[in-house]
Queue: 2 jobs
Job 1
Amino acid sequence: MRCPFCAVDERDKVIETRVSKDGREIRRRRECEACTRRFTTYERIEESMPLVIKADGRREPFDRNKIEHGIHAAVAKRPVSQDQVKQLALDVEREIGELALSEIASREIGERVLPRLRLLDPVAYVRFASIYRDFGDLDSFTKELDALREDTGRHLADPGADRHLADPNAGVRDAAAPAPVRRVDSSR
């Protein structure tokens, strides 16, 4: 390790080590023994992610931040937290990484976001779907809304159905924690 202040090699000691919340990164506080200044380093496993094939045929490196940005646009002014957005994007990234593909279409990435977003917030799902599914006319958009209404009715009858897509810890709850509150739109 080279000190970023005095550029001395291999003369530092680790003061503190922490693992990130998602377990994918290690943060180390270090102190240079030559100049006594402190700095932080991060260790990550470098995964081989596929190239993303855009609609116009261009290829670019996979970037989870672009997924987060798209989800943020869809959940604007909706009751969805930053942590939920980050977790959804991380889940999609892990799923894509496990495919071990060299290339993946951007449309396929969007299709992997949709079922999770549908469970998280139906309005955000419709917003996101309107972009990724590129509805050609009002009829195709209406069909999607009708399917969402039908599916929402089914989920109200069985609130635990497909919950694992939106929450990997579904069903695992601290006994002392209050039960989750499910909001139901009664305006229909």
Job 2
Amino acid sequence: MKILYSTIAIVSLSIMAEICPTCGLPKDLCVCSEIDREQQRIRIRLETRKFGRPTTIVDGINDKNTNLASTAQKLKGVCACGGTAKNGQILLQGDHREKVREYLIKLGYPEENIELQ
């Protein structure tokens, strides 16, 4: 009888789901991150820095769920270049605008919200 009671308690605890404070849906059905991604305007531009070196700058990624430094690390691996993340921007050495755009689309950012300059 004691085993049956503990099994029922475990099942009742697993049925209760955590609720997202923003949208009010259960955590497994939460759509807040997709809504945030759809509302972002991401700019990818090319600047020439000191000594005429081209630098790709990505700004506008303000997602709470993603870490800017880890996104920069992945982009550096995709583009096979050096770079950094600082002041809300990702700086990549060289002209990698198309590669960055394709990778961000693959991550789930809408294509119409990514602007190339």
